[in-house]
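WARN retry 2 of 3 for item q-0093 after timeout on previous attempt; input resubmitted unchanged.
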Amino acid sequence: MKITYVARKVNLRENFKERVELKLKKFSKIFSDSAEATVVVTLEKNRQTVEITIKDNSMVFRAESTMAEMNDALDKVVDLIAGQLRKHKTKLSKRIKTGSIDDLVIASAEEDVTMEDEDTYDIVRRKQIPLKPVSVEEAILQMELVGHQFYMFLNADTNLINVVYIRKDGSYGLLEPSDE
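OK item q-0093 returned
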């Protein structure tokens, strides 16, 4: 696993980097050799935030923790990622046993979104997303792993960009482009 360090307002010591490598080494059985981990450490007002993002093929695992000590935050983040991996493994085994999650996915959105007429819109953040062809089920798993309310992906079946989202009632929705 390739590990990239990003330090914001803090200098990372070699013993911290060694500790990160030791902690992430226990995930080497799960991830391929081409997996990439990004460790971001930020210091703000005596609070240290450690964020780890692990990308492997089309899967993304991300966790973040803020504590007074950098090593404590690292321990918490590693525990969170381990929990995500357990959850992902359980969901995959359930999906294999029960068939698929297609029953939960709703084919179209029920509400039309209308935007108010304004002169300018403030875009506070831009994010580029690598679009690899994945199934709807994989997209739902990815959305849950990153903890978002929606997830944009390239549908492997239709080769079109789709969005899955969590509805207010806890079920899932799927947005697909149409010609109309």
